[in-house]
Amino acid sequence: MAVVQPSAVGGVPAAAIAAPERRWRDLLRQVMGRPSAAAAVVVVLLLVAAALLAPVLTPYDPTHIDVFARLQGPSIRHWLGTDSLGRDNLTRTLYGTRVALVIAVPSVVGAFVVGGVLGLLGGYLGGWLDRVLVVVFDALVSFPSVILGLALLTLLGPSVASVILVIATALVPYYGRLVRAQTLAEREVGYARTERALGASRTRVLLRHLVPNVVPTLLTVVAMDVPGAVVDAAGLAFLGLGVQAPTPDWGVMLNDGFTNIAGSPWGVVGPILALVVMTSAFLVLGESVRAVLDPRGPAPRRSRQWTFRKASR
Fold first, then answer.
1. Taking 70 as the threshold, does the pLDDT of residue 196 lie above it?
2. How far is 78 from 269, CA to CA, in rounded Å?
């Protein structure tokens, strides 16, 4: 039985249809070929290792109170000193890496998945579903995110799960709008039209061609939203609205450290350095992805106004 070649339809070569499968591999190879991106990946992996191996890397319990060792400076036993309750600052910083990643990664990835699925369906199917989603996204974006976040935290109470939900809720409409716009542009490209002309189902075109082409171009935004989520979570904890003591969180540590900064400034060193390192690594990684996808283009605009840090603008 004769097989119809994709190149025979619309003058589009077969390579254009196979391109989406190669795009992921090409993107990964080009990104990792940049020294700055490779260094950023190494830093991120070290942070993940620190989060996972914290019990092995330090002999102290991050919540153990020792009133006889409170507010000590750096020493052989306590490299970054101790806090107001005698807890080792370095230990709490290492464990705080775990809390930061547990909040930031699920909130950003979850928001991207939910917003991405809705944006894909709306942009590809169109019709009443697209119109409803546009209205919902616009309504959520126009609603003050600070009020929305405070309302959710008041309703659910301060916890790790609540902070994840607040950050994810603030991100979903932005991802939905970005993915919808990208889907509208991609669905009329040659390979998508060729597949439809060959009789491919909507599901096949959506999953095999649109998703592999839409997602890589948005990885820049995702990578740059992770450090924003980390800072948001730390800010909420610092204000007493997020993760609560005695959980070893960087925001909780900053709150305690600034309270006693006059007599013992070492309490803020660990969390500040950790925040700088983590945010810088993800930002460099996101910039590297952007440079590969669009070498001559400007840096991408932020996908949203951060829930609490830009509310006053």
1. no
2. 13
> Which band of pLDDT confidence, cut at 50, 70 and 90, is reported for residue 110?
very high
Percent of the chain with pLDDT over 90: 40
CA distance 254 to 271: 7
246 and 88 in contact (C-beta within 8 Å)?
Answer: no
Tell me the per-residue pLDDT of 128-137, one tens digit each, with 9 for 90 and over.
988 999 999 9
> What's the whole-number mean pLDDT along residues 91-110?
95
3-state secondary structure of 61: coil
Burial class (CB in 10 A: 0-12, 13-18, 19+), 78: buried
Is residue 13 over pLDDT 70? no
Fill in the DSSP letter of residue 88.
B
Rounded CA gap, 164 and 234, in Å? Answer: 12
If one counts every other C-beta atom within 10 angstroms of the C-beta of residue 306, the result is 18
Higher pLDDT: 219 or 305? It is: 219
Q: How far is the C-alpha of 311 from the C-alpha of 313, rounded, in Å?
A: 6
Select from 57, 151, 156, 47 the least CA-distant residue to 99: 47
| CATH of the structural domain 31-293, one choice from 1.10.3720.10, 3.40.50.850, 1.10.8.60, 3.40.50.2300 | 1.10.3720.10
Question: How much is the average pLDDT of 243-247?
Answer: 89
Find how far residue 277's CA is from the centre of its chain: 15
Is the four-CA dihedral 272, 275, 279, 281 of positive or negative sign? Answer: positive
* SS3 of residue 262 by DSSP: coil
Predicted pLDDT at 4: 39
The whole-angstrom separation of Cα 253 and Cα 90 is: 11
At position 232, the amino acid (one-letter code) is D
